């Protein structure tokens, strides 16, 4: 590459490796800069750009000239790398296995270091955070140890459920979280934590989705009239009231609306209980707008308004 011209063999290899593009395919930016230089009223623009193409760096004073002409953006983070790659393309011999040597040359001669690179020999020090001072008289001290008297610990567990009656947290008699659950909409367990045994008294909770009892042998929930399999999202036996819903499969679960409906007995779906414990009801006014009963929680009204519609705006069932 001492002549500044690619041999046919090296040209083909460099294009195949993706190190450069075919002639005419990657020179759009250079052509754009060249046209800008030619249109620039400052006569030094052409001299500056020719020097840059030849040496890969800008002559002193050329950055200001090219900036005033609007032909080159020196504010980009990649400017250093553009210069280095231009110099490599014009002056360094292309060898497929000399990547490390080329990188070292670029770093030594062009100082192209990415600030985000973490180097083992120069670890990044975590910056000092200027946090506000603690409020005087406030409780700002973390306890050094758990002050609960384990002798007072009893096998009592409190269930904390969501709007479907499904267990989300269980706490012990001290109020400490001991169990945590997350389920998919149709009840399949996604996340389950049980830390009760860590405190000396273990408890294997069986009441999870909808608060129904989980049968360990089958992995199904007992709903009274029949068993429900959360893995396939259906009941495993026929609905005793199947004739009431001829348009539905007798194995379906809550009309495929598990977010807003429950099936307490395994026989018929019901809207989730409202704020007074009674089932939520709704009707449409003269304008076709869905109006829910007063016991509907405010945070569910928008979601449920969409759930009671089909794509045509009609009721689901």
Largest sheet: 4 strands, antiparallel
Mean pLDDT: 75
Quickly count the helices: 7
- Portion of residues in beta strands equals 5-15%
Oligomer kind: single chain
Low-confidence stretches: 310-317
User: What series of H and E elements makes up the topology?
Assistant: HHHHHHEEEEEEEEEEEEH
Query: How would you describe the shape?
Result: elongated
Can you count the beta strands? 12
Spatial extent as radius of gyration: 36 Å
Terminal residue distance: 77 Å
Give the spatial strand order of the biggest sheet: 1-2-3-4
Report helical residue fraction. 10-25%
Broad structural category: alpha+beta
Protein traits:
317 residues; alpha+beta; four-stranded antiparallel sheet; 7 helices; elongated
In short:
With 317 residues, the protein is an alpha+beta fold. Helix content is 24%, strand content 14%.
Textual characterization of the structure:
With 317 residues, the protein is of the alpha+beta class. The protein contains seven helices and twelve strands. It has helices at residues 8-16, 28-39, 44-55, 62-69, 79-91, 99-110, 298-307; strands at residues 158-161, 167-171, 177-183, 189-194, 213-215, 220-222, 227-229, 234-235, 261-262, 270-271, 282-284, 290-292. The chain is elongated, with a radius of gyration of 36 Å. The model is unreliable at 310-317 (pLDDT under 50).
List the helices and strands and how they pair.
Layout: H1 8-16, H2 28-39, H3 44-55, H4 62-69, H5 79-91, H6 99-110, E1 158-161, E2 167-171, E3 177-183, E4 189-194, E5 213-215, E6 220-222, E7 227-229, E8 234-235, E9 261-262, E10 270-271, E11 282-284, E12 290-292, H7 298-307
Antiparallel strand pairs: 1-2, 2-3, 3-4, 5-6, 6-7, 7-8, 9-10, 11-12
Helix pairs in contact: 3-4, 3-5, 5-6
């Amino acid at each position: 590459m001492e002549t500044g011209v690619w041999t046919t063999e090296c040209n083909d290899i460099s294009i195949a490796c993706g190190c450069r593009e075919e002639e005419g395919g990657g020179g759009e930016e250079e052509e754009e800069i060249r046209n800008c230089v030619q249109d620039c009223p400052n006569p030094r623009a052409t001299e500056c750009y020719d020097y840059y193409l030849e040496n890969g760096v800008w002559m002193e004073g050329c950055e200001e000239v090219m900036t005033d002409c609007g032909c080159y953006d020196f504010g980009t983070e990649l400017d250093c790398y553009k210069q280095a790659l231009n110099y490599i393309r014009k002056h360094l011999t292309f060898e497929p296995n000399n990547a490390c040597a080329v990188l070292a040359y670029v770093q030594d001669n062009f100082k192209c270091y990415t600030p985000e690179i973490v180097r083992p020999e120069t670890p990044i020090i975590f910056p000092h955070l200027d946090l506000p001072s603690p409020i005087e008289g406030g409780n700002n001290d973390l306890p050094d140890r758990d002050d609960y008297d384990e002798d007072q610990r009893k096998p009592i567990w409190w269930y904390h459920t969501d709007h479907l009656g499904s267990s989300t947290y269980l706490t012990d008699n001290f109020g400490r979280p001991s169990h945590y659950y997350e389920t998919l909409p149709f009840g399949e367990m996604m996340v389950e934590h049980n830390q009760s045994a860590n405190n000396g008294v273990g408890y294997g909770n069986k009441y999870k989705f909808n608060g129904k009892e989980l049968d360990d042998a089958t992995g199904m929930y007992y709903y009274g009239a029949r068993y429900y399999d959360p893995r396939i999202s259906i009941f495993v036996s026929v609905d005793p009231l199947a004739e009431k819903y001829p348009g539905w499969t007798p194995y379906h679960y809550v009309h495929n609306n598990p977010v807003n409906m429950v099936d307490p007995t395994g026989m018929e779906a019901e809207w989730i209980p409202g704020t007074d414990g009674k089932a939520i009801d709704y009707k449409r006014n003269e304008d076709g707008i869905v109006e829910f009963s007063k016991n509907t929680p405010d945070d569910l009204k928008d979601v449920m308004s969409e759930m009671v519609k089909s794509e045509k705006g009609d009721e689901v069932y």
